[in-house]
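Give me the fold.
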Amino acid sequence: SPPFQRIESTWSPPESAVSRIATARKQSAMLDGKFLEFWDHTLLKPVASLELPAAQFVVFSPNERLLLAGSPERAGTLVDAVSHSVLAAIGTGTRKVYQGAFSPDSRHIFAGDGGGKLQTWDLEGVLENTLLGHRGPIYTVQTWMVENGGMMAASAGEDKVLRLWPRAFWDSRLLFLQQAVSEDKTYLNED
């Protein structure tokens, strides 16, 4: 027998091509350019749909209770991944947002924009910090845990630079620790 089983369903196809998909243990979320559709892995069928025009990325939080769907007009729409209801609009701006991510503890939202800014928000949609460090659009954002419960974020983009952001740079509760490094490797305190 084959190592996998082909599963077919009789669900209706989206109105347009599926552009992005995010997966969690119990469900997946698909974007088709107009709708965000939640697909239950146990029932093997869609269970909810939200109209989110122009969304271009979708990502589940590490605890799988939240989902961020991002669009060019704002950093994203925060969705309750259990009830499938919209919780908040996260950020607004004039630059296109290419990618978003949750912090490893699912308490902060990151979004990289077309102007080289990495912004962080809390789950209420309040801007926490704007991190400058890129020349041009940020195309990817990732977060991860490090030793002793620490957290890191990384961003990269058109300028071909990978920036690593320790938690002290983006967590508003730790901003008094923030430091930047100049090109000559001396440390500059941020005021």
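The mean pLDDT is 79.
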